[in-house]
Amino acid sequence: MTKKILLSVFLLPAIMTFAQQYGGMWIPTELNEKEMKDLGIKISVKDIFNSQKASIKDAVVQFNGGCTAEIISPKGLLLTNHHCGYGQIQAHSTIQNDLLSNGFWAKNPQGELPNPGLTVDFIIDIKEVTNQILDGTEHLTEPELSKKIANNIESYKNAQKIEPYQSISVKSMYYENKFYAYTIETYKDIRLVGAPPQSIGKFGSDTDNWVWPRHTGDFSMFRIYADKNNKPAEYSKENVPYVPKYFLPVSIKDKNENDFTFVFGFPGKTTEYLPAIAVEKITKDIDPARIAVRDIALKTLDEKMRTDDATRIKYASKYAYVANYWKKWIGEVEGLKKSNAVEKKAMYEGSLKAKNHEIKSTLDQLNKLYNDQTPFALNNTYYTEVIKNAETLKLANDYYTYITAVEAGRMDEKGTAALKKKLVPFYKDYSAELDAKVTAKLLALYANKTAPQFLPTGFEKYKNEAQNIQYFEEISKNSIITGRSEVNGASISQDIDKAFSNQDQLIKSLKKDPVYQLFILMRDTYMTKVDPQFTSLQSKIDALQKTYMAQQIATDKDKKFFPDANSTLRVTYGKVKGSSPRDAVSYNYQTHLAGVMEKYIPGDYEFDVPKKLIDLYNKKDFGIYKDKTGDVPVGFTATNHTTGGNSGSPALDANGNLIGLNFDRQWEGTMSDINYDPRFSRNIMVDTKYILFIIDKYADSKWLIDEMKIVK
Ligand code: ARG
Ligand code: ASP
């Protein structure tokens, strides 16, 4: 009976939305056309990816190595998220000319702002190269196996004839069971064209992050420039707007629930094929440990940020960064529990074992390895998260790396200059007093959560948090690392050149520094008692995961497999859809401008709304951008299986027209990185109608709309 209920819970929704039973982020050269047609796509998969002829892929780029962006005009106009262009918008901002707060709109191409270092990558071609890369590896085991694979990759790359502005990247799929080669073209002159103010582009900020219903206009615009031959070039005044092989038409048609949609972009990392035991460890040990560390860091920062404006500004971006995954992991744990991920995986393993006896042995070994690894993995998580979030210790780690490089003769003037260049802005946004408190609390957590056999000598004394705050304040005050004590006659945080003026003295002082010594003790203990075992068990797990992956593919003939995300170009498809993630809670698939006004809190740093937008709303001055409800749609959700890196990805309709810009997922479904569930997993997109409404009516930048091909 119980089993029957379980089965129906899992299978019914799966059958109803068959295509999304397992989600899927597909390699664009291996799309399942039949399934896409069944779901409603009208164009052919050849229109999506074609290495011989212009296709949609020619309009999709990786933005600065992380996010995704797409071309929406014949003049190389590029659309991505506000949070993806945030660094560039911030870099052009000053107190007098604060583009983050006010927004920015170039009046013409001459007004577009260059961004040194910013790149976009086009994928020119994709080839499966498994045979070449695994050639001669049949009987090898580690470490020879890795060496041979690396050599084969090098030889493959060297044998390819490519243009000077192209590169080849070989990526492993299915845990090194397959390999794919990507021909990449990188453009380097990318200029900022427009961005709404944060009160639109980041509306709702951390409170609304990962949350549906959502009202963020999370977009910004750039333009790709090329040399006179339309080829990549470093920034130059002589460069001209890039003429793309293909650009996306922008649709402002109304959306309806169950419309077909697909998302094309560069998802970063997922782990969909782990054994049940691994998911259990993530749910019970790893995620809760990460959350516990960040809980403390965020709470301590927040107390100060709420009462002190200078601190709020200094820590805004760091806080958002730490809070982003903190919030995601909380949602992930809940979602893994709610979707019965561990039980579902265990049942699946049972069915695999029934079909293939060898899988039992693989899984038994994996179970044993994960259990053996648990204490080491847990300490690894606390160690890495504490160092990452206790800024004082992170600094100590940087100085440790520096000293090690100097002593090994690997540090030259350029290296020192690079370190200083990194430290200056760090100290600018660092409060040693505040971090002394964070670090003290995190040390207390570390002392309490570390198993006795891994605890550094003397760390018992940190166990009492309240005492530790006083105790660590003394250490911090007397440290040159925190900038509160001087070296070479200067504070590192005030005058870094002077503090670094005598390298020998700097190193001598660092080695005697109380923070440095504390960090070294922590690091040495970790590196001797935990890291070797953790790493060696991990490489055994990795080898078996490769076997288990191959066995899943060989055994489960009914399932269509897709490789885990690895920052390569993928297509995911589904339907525009709301959801019902909790008892009696039902989410509509679409939000509207009225919802922005409902959330409006005058003067609030997260929910303020610009006056002009309020005026447009009051006057109902929506132009051609309203939908059948009479209001402007702002965001919508669909069942596309996306992850980090898909931010800025185009959401397209059945005809390949742009209908939205992907930027987030709903909280109840963020476990999709491990266990996609069609009932709760939804990606969140900004509606193209809202984007065009803001450009046209709010920013008066009709000249940009005129460049586009609008589908009405
Ligand atoms: N959650 C989204 C993603 O993972 C958006 C993050 C940026 N926004 C923020 N409030 N931190 O990247
Ligand atoms: N917000 C994410 C990104 O920046 C997208 C996601 O995780 O769904 O890529």
Question: What's the topology here?
Answer:
Layout: H1 2-16, H2 33-39, H3 45-48, E1 60-63, E2 67-71, E3 77-80, H4 82-91, H5 99-102, E4 104-105, E5 113-114, E6 120-128, H6 130-134, H7 144-159, E7 166-173, E8 178-187, E9 189-195, H8 198-201, H9 205-208, E10 220-226, E11 240-241, E12 250-251, E13 260-265, H10 276-307, H11 309-338, H12 341-355, H13 357-389, H14 391-407, H15 413-428, H16 432-449, H17 465-477, H18 496-499, H19 503-512, H20 514-529, H21 531-555, E14 570-575, E15 579-582, E16 585-587, E17 590-592, H22 593-599, H23 611-619, E18 633-638, E19 650-652, E20 658-665, E21 683-687, H24 688-698, H25 702-707, E22 710-711
Parallel strand pairs: 12-22
Antiparallel strand pairs: 1-2, 1-6, 2-3, 3-10, 4-9, 5-9, 6-8, 7-8, 9-10, 10-11, 13-14, 13-19, 15-16, 17-18, 18-21, 19-20, 20-21
The structure holds arginine and aspartic acid (ASP).
Describe it.
With 712 residues, the protein is of the alpha+beta class. It has four domains: 2-119 and 188-271 and 564-711, Beta Barrel (Thrombin, subunit H); 121-187, no CATH class; 273-389 and 545-563, no CATH class; 390-529, no CATH class. It contains 25 helices and 22 strands. The strands form four sheets. Strands 1, 2, 3, 4, 5, 6, 7, 8, 9, 10 and 11 form an eleven-stranded antiparallel sheet that branches. Strands 14-13-19-20-21-18-17 form a seven-stranded antiparallel sheet. The model is unreliable at 1-19 (pLDDT under 50). The structure holds arginine and aspartic acid. Aspartic acid binds next to strand 20.
